[in-house]
Design brief:
single chain, seven-stranded parallel β-sheet, 14% strand, Rossmann fold, alpha/beta
């Protein structure tokens, strides 16, 4: 069913009205992996709105530069870098470049990832490695690279990881991504414990559906409608909400929080009742394992 017109569907503030002061990250540099588009770009913009200098890192320099242009339009100092998060040497070089141009990196947003719907028995070894290594290895390598530098300088820091709300339930056609995102969540807790004494906090956002132009389904109204109708909040997430929450976990406003995985999904993960549509096995769905493609 569609969301009835009389239901109240709350919307977040406009992009121009972030929920924190414009100088809350003043003097600090953040590196955002996969920051040139989609959810990574939303994270990068959110940090920029708080006054951070932003290093946008991606495998495609062209895409990173395109994202950097949008961030520069917000008035932030920004620099685009190309690096593969699976390559330790490339990550070290990216941090060297970011710090040479923008200053010491003490904030990190691990967003780089890959995903595509495919039934588990059809996932090739290469496909499995592509998804899991970007999310797991990339999060580990970027995090440890930043933290080693922070510890050497005596700097405090904060990290936020882009996880997913299906880490507790799995998701049809998503064995590779579910495994990778679950590892990110567990890593979040382990790293928070390891780096507590260095005043380096690590948290994650388990994101629900945040349609955007580069997501699998895109952000066209006819693609979003079926998702909105199944979410208790009455709508999918607005990508600026994800960016703001991610950045906020790295502010002093959340200074007492570390090792947490925050669910931001409009209540979709709570959608359980006695009366629900009949279950259709993923391989029998007419529109693919995700069901709405």
């Amino acid at each position: 069913m569609t969301v009835p017109a009389h239901h109240i569907v709350p919307e977040p503030p406009a992009l121009e009205k972030p929920p924190y002061p414009a100088d809350i990250f003043a003097g600090r540099t953040v590196l955002v992996s996969g920051g040139g588009s989609g959810m990574g770009l939303a994270m990068a913009k959110a940090f920029a709105q708080g006054g951070a200098k932003v290093a946008v890192m991606g495998r495609s320099l062209e895409r990173a530069e395109a994202g950097a242009e949008e961030i520069a339009a917000l008035g932030a100092a920004v620099h685009a870098i190309s690096a593969d998060v699976r390559d330790p040497a490339a990550i070290a070089a990216a941090f060297d470049e970011a710090e040479r141009v923008l200053g010491p990196v003490t904030l990190l947003a691990n967003n780089a990832g890959a995903n595509f719907p495919v039934l588990a028995e059809n996932i090739s070894a290469n496909a499995w490695n592509a998804v899991t290594r970007i999310a797991i290895d990339g999060t580990f390598l970027c995090s440890t690279e930043m933290v080693r530098r922070c510890i050497a300088r005596g700097d405090s820091g904060a990290i936020v990881n882009n996880s997913a709300q299906y880490i507790w339930t799995g998701f049809p056609g998503d064995a590779h991504s579910a495994a990778a995102k679950t590892a990110q969540a567990t890593m979040t807790k382990a790293m928070a414990r390891d780096w507590k004494t260095h005043n380096i906090r690590v948290n994650a956002v388990a994101a629900g559906f945040f349609p955007h132009a580069s997501s699998t389904n895109g952000d066209a109204p006819d693609a979003i409608a079926p998702l909105q109708n199944m979410i208790p909040a009455g709508r999918t997430g607005r990508i600026r909400e994800f960016g703001w929450l991610s950045a906020m976990t790295c502010t002093p406003l959340f200074g007492g929080m570390t090792g947490q995985v925050i669910v931001q999904d409009g209540g979709e993960s709570l959608r359980r009742s006695l009366m629900m549509p009949d279950f259709v096995p993923p391989r029998e769905r007419a529109n693919g394992p995700w069901g709405w493609l």
